[in-house]
Amino acid sequence: MISRVKDIFDERGIKQSHIVRKYGISATTMSAIYRGSIPTLQNAYIIAQELRLPIEEIWYDDITKYIKKTEPIKRDLSNEPIEVMDFEPRTFFALKKNNINTYSQLKSVDLKKLYRVGKGTIKDIEEKLEKWERENEYE
Question: In this structure, are residues 124 and 95 in contact, taking their beta carbons and an 8 Å threshold?
Answer without folding.
Answer: no
